[in-house]
Hints:
Layout: H1 2-11, H2 14-30, H3 35-38, E1 46-48, E2 51-53, E3 57-59, H4 70-74, E4 80-86, E5 99-102, E6 107-110, H5 118-128, E7 134-139, H6 150-161, E8 167-171, H7 186-207, E9 213-217, H8 223-236, E10 240-243, E11 264-267, H9 271-285, E12 291-294, H10 300-309, E13 313-316, H11 318-323, H12 326-339
Parallel strand pairs: 3-4, 3-13, 4-7, 7-8, 8-9, 9-10, 10-12, 12-13
Antiparallel strand pairs: 1-2, 5-6, 6-11
Amino acid sequence: MYALARPFLFCLSPETAHSAALLSLQLAAGLHVTKLLTGNVPADPVRVMGIDFPNRVGLAAGLDKNAEYVDALAALGFGFIEVGTVTPRPQPGNPKPRLFRIPEQQAIINRMGFNNGGVNGMLANLERTRYQGILGINIGKNKDTPLENALDDYVACMDGVYPYASYITVNLSSPNTPGLRDLQVGDTFRQLLEGIRNRQAHLRAQHGRHVPVAVKLAPDLSEDALQSIADTLLALEIECVIATNTTIARPMVAGLKHADETGGLSGKPVFEASTQALRVLSQALGDRIPLIGVGGITDGATAVAKREAGAALVQLYSGLIYSGPALVGEVARALAAHSR
């Protein structure tokens, strides 16, 4: 069914197509026909971060930035949904055009720039959702917040989303907010995470429930940098790592239309780098901190490769643009078979 719709969607600008696809999915969910899009999604329960996931396949942050389509997306059979990235204050993001397809490589370049309606707007949407499943909320800083004040933004987001989140992801790895990736290194990284862990403890006492914290990293870090990051994550007892965000590297798409656009490259070309980062982190962290693998999952085999590299769970995004909702069922079935 998606194969028939995709040529029409690809005639539209990527952002327009994105909105049209979500609205169509919402309609399909209202008509209770989403299972026709995904096929069978088997149960494959697993406990990660102290949370019981019904299956290992999640939606990555970025597709539903404002948590407007959670119910419709959940109807596709995802084991968990991650929304955001949300910032304390609304911001428009970068000027359009800012989203580009590279179909030859099943790739996307985006420089969205954390466009979102702010934390209060997200909370209003979550108040209306009926979804009772596992919800990750991805948080970031506003573009105009100085790096030295970044912790204030992350704390403000945590305060708002904590009652709604099953887990909270700290996004330090988008290439589209100036300087953000600098927060992944050295003393800055440690101090930021110390502040986040302290706020997490305060919120746990305030709300009487524990919400785990995950950290999302870039695929462009060296092995030495990843090892240093792993040491800090272990020392601070961070509860999960998401590997990885988009890449700024371009060799995989060199010479193709849009390859020179600034922003983060996702989809098939990021698979090798993201999986290698996952592998390095898995070796460094062992079984002490679980990993979520994301980046370049285009079929069941690439999802299984993430599991074999150390991922307890996986997330999809760009693959959905090219393969459609059927990818959810395909990946879920492959991972369930691999688990047996």
